[in-house]
Design a protein that fits this description.
Radius of gyration: 21 Å
Distance between the termini: 22 Å
Helix content: 40-55%
Number of strands: 8
Bound molecules: guanosine-5',3'-tetraphosphate
Order of helices and strands: HEHEHEHEHEEEEHHHHH
């Protein structure tokens, strides 16, 4: 049962991350919220809007190469309908990163104009990237910064240790991304974060995660299991049957005839996380 899925987490970590984020946000004019296209809802932090207040926000829907394309389009429309600037990106391959930059510059324009009206002509706008762990924040920064890396400078007067890098004319980026911990109270969110690799395995029950994932795939996309592992399963099967069938197909049988469940669970989670089973969106609209 998904309701049994719990993340062992220390609230102190979340409070600390939030405080850091609040400090960082004060330094910037525009925020890029990076979401995982496989879990657009679960990777959203409901507190972010409160933290950034009226500052403009652009959504980067990353890892679209791993998500179901039709679902991604639906999510794009949902964000657009809510009036949010959003861009599909695949930071690993560099797709959409230029378009994202253009959107950020567009979102920052009103801030620049405000400064211009005050007579400040050479002030750059500043931005930062925020998102859950492993969503691709550093990959995006590296893509954007690229050859500009040498321009990194440590500015006195701003919070000590903050590095700013120029990513385009008139636009600087805080080179430390903001990590956001979503609320794990909802077991569905915890499950989505666990199976996509946003949280480390030592804070959740791996067996339960693998069973829930098998169950989810049986109900939603059994063909991915069948094609991926050469089995013949469907919505009528249980997760135990699925994991056993996969193990047997691999020949992972232990002395006494029992299948090697642990090895199978680890493989399923790894294959899913790495996109080996195909494109999947867990948060479906
Ligand atoms: P973070 O700063 O938000 O914590 O994430 P980071 O950039 O470190 O990215 C986490 C992992 O996600 C990396 O893989 C990275 O390559 C991968 N990644 C980032 N963007 C994309 C994307 O659009 N598509 C896909 N498929 N993967 C993406 P890793 O396994 O940790 O390292 P490596 O494979 O790059 O060696």
């Amino acid at each position: 049962m998904i309701d049994d899925f719990k993340i062992q987490w220390f609230p102190g970590h979340m409070t600390k991350a939030r405080r850091m984020m609040e400090e960082q946000v004060k330094l910037v004019d525009v925020v890029v919220e990076m979401l995982d296209a496989r879990i657009p809802q679960s990777s959203t932090n409901p507190l972010l809007n409160q933290i950034i207040g009226s500052k403009p926000k652009v959504i980067a829907l990353n890892k679209v190469d791993m998500a179901d394309s039709a679902q991604t389009e639906i999510w794009m429309e949902t964000f657009k309908a809510a009036g949010l600037p959003v861009v599909k990106v695949d930071c690993a391959k560099g797709r959409g990163v230029k378009e994202l930059l253009a959107k950020v510059q567009e979102a920052a324009k009103p801030v620049l104009e405000k400064w211009f009206k005050k007579g400040v002509r050479n002030r750059s706008t500043r931005g930062m990237i925020v998102g859950i762990p492993n969503v691709g924040k550093s990959t995006l920064i590296n893509r954007w910064v690229g050859k500009n890396k040498v321009n990194a400078e440590n500015r006195p007067g701003v919070t000590r240790g903050q590095q700013w890098v120029t990513i385009a004319k008139g636009l600087e980026l805080l080179d430390t991304p903001g990590v956001l911990w979503p609320k794990f109270d909802d077991p569905k969110v915890g499950f989505a974060l666990a199976v996509t690799g946003a949280i480390k395995e030592d804070v959740f029950d791996r067996t339960l995660a693998a069973e829930l994932l098998a169950e989810w795939l049986l109900q939603n996309s059994p063909e991915l299991l069948n094609n991926g592992y050469g089995v013949d399963l469907g919505a009528g099967n249980t997760h135990t049957e699925a994991l056993e069938a996969i193990a047997r197909k691999r020949g992972w049988i232990r002395v006494g005839g029992l299948v090697d469940r642990e090895r199978t669970e680890m493989m399923l989670l790894r294959d899913f996380r790495n996109g080996n089973l195909g494109r999947i969106t867990i948060d479906r609209k």
